[in-house]
Design a protein that fits this description.
This protein is an alpha/beta fold. It folds into two domains: 2-169 and 349-373, Glycogen Phosphorylase B (Rossmann fold, 3-Layer(aba) Sandwich), CATH 3.40.50.2000; 176-347, Glycogen Phosphorylase B (Rossmann fold), CATH 3.40.50.2000. 41% of the residues lie in helices and 18% in strands. The chain is built from 14 helices and 17 strands. Strands 3-2-1-6-8-9-10 form a seven-stranded parallel beta sheet, with helices on both faces. Strands 13-12-11-14-15-16 form a six-stranded parallel beta sheet, sandwiched between helices. α11 links the parallel β15 (291-294) and β16 (310-312). It is elongated, with a radius of gyration of 21 Å.
């Protein structure tokens, strides 16, 4: 099968949708299918062989964050050329409501189109106002996937219709084994955070407040942070006496991302909302890191109600500190949670998830033929 996949977000910036697209593409390639991905990226960027650049992305406020998207004459031309050259059996767009390549691809193509929705977006005037424009593209979609119930609810509320639930995937083997970073996790314990430091809904401010409470009682405890953001702004939120115990890695390579997860005693996901799944949890679970996470519906589902990780009251640094302390002081509990996570995460391995996606492709193929470019 010839499969075209559209990623709306900058390929060079780590994020849940990009990770999903790359994991799906690589799993489909392993199954023997022909796969091409188009994504925003600088023309001189080093990209996987299966990725085609649609041109440079620009920052756009979207869903409580600032996303790097591509939209304009160049993007339209490149999407159309990619569709023509690809001669795809099926087109798979991600986040088709975002003002980026997926929306362009829906406008530009006819034929079997599958869409995956990732985001849980609150009802907004902007989305309501744009609905007639969106509908002209989204009505072409013949198969719909939502990564979680929250994303499915967004689809029903804003765009109409329904979707099959297929969660995010992870290459479990990639995360299972790695050497920790030099000097970690250390004797005093290490808490880990992975995410955009400059995005409030990722909850780093909650973790920093909780860390300050823990650090006052645990003189050798450290906090290891990987992600995009201003290091000075982060450190300014930490009492001066504890700043030397906060290690900021900045953006990391895929290899160091895995090593970072093997460098912590407890991984913390303090997100405050807007999460439809919890990709970072699945990655941490695959690495064997015991997880402490906000009690969001999406996180609770991934962690099986607390069987595969410890949950704390969302936005409460005191409760976060108590949950982390509980794990740090109980190696047996950490081992049990890690074992539970190891079992739970098998449901999200790409060898399972990609087959579910293929079933959706196969369901839309008989009635619609190949993908064609609209003239």
């Amino acid at each position: 099968m010839r499969i075209g996949i559209v990623c709306p977000y900058d390929w060079e910036v780590p994020g849940g949708v990009r990770e999903h697209v790359s994991g799906l593409a690589e799993a489909l390639l392993e199954f023997g299918h022909e796969v091409s991905v188009i994504a925003p990226a600088d023309d001189d960027a080093v990209l996987p062989s299966y990725v085609v650049s649609a041109g440079r992305a620009v920052p756009v406020p979207y869903n409580g964050s600032v996303a790097r998207l591509a939209f304009g004459f160049m993007a339209v031309a490149r999407v159309r050329r990619w569709l023509k050259d690809g001669d795809f059996d099926v087109l798979h767009v991600h986040e088709p409501a975002a003002p980026s390549l997926s929306l362009i691809a829906c406008w530009a193509a006819d034929g079997p189109i599958v869409a995956t929705l990732h985001a849980a977006i609150p009802r907004s005037r902007a989305l309501y106002a744009a609905q007639p424009i969106l509908n002209s593209a989204l009505e072409k979609i013949s198969g719909r996937i939502a990564v979680a119930e929250a994303a499915r609810s967004t689809l029903v509320a804003h765009l109409g219709g329904d979707a099959v639930l297929i969660p995010n995937g992870v290459n479990v083997r990639r995360y299972e084994k790695a050497e920790p970073l030099p000097g970690f996790p250390g004797q005093g314990g290490t808490i880990g955070f992975l995410g955009r430091m400059d995005e409030p809904r990722k909850g780093l401010h909650v973790l920093l407040a909780g860390f300050a409470l823990l650090a006052a009682q645990r003189p050798d405890l450290r906090l290891l942070i990987a992600g995009r953001g201003d290091a000075d702004e982060v450190l300014a939120q930490v009492p001066a006496a504890f700043r030397d115990r906060v290690v900021l890695l900045g953006l990391v390579s895929d290899e160091d991302r895995v090593r970072m997860l093997h460098s912590v005693d407890v991984f913390c996901a303090p997100n405050t909302g807007g999460e439809s799944f919890g990709m970072v949890l699945v990655e941490a679970m695959s690495s064997g890191a015991p997880v402490v996470a906000s009690d969001l519906d999406a996180f609770r589902q991934v962690l099986r109600g607390g069987e595969a990780g410890e949950l704390f009251e969302t936005g409460n640094p005191d409760d976060l500190a108590a949950a982390v302390a509980k794990l740090l002081d109980d190696p047996g509990l950490r081992a049990r949670l890690a074992a539970g996570a190891s079992v739970a995460v098998r449901d999200y391995d790409w060898s399972v998830i990609a087959r579910d996606v293929l079933r959706v492709y196969q369901a839309v193929l008989p009635a619609t033929g190949r993908v064609a470019v609209v003239r």
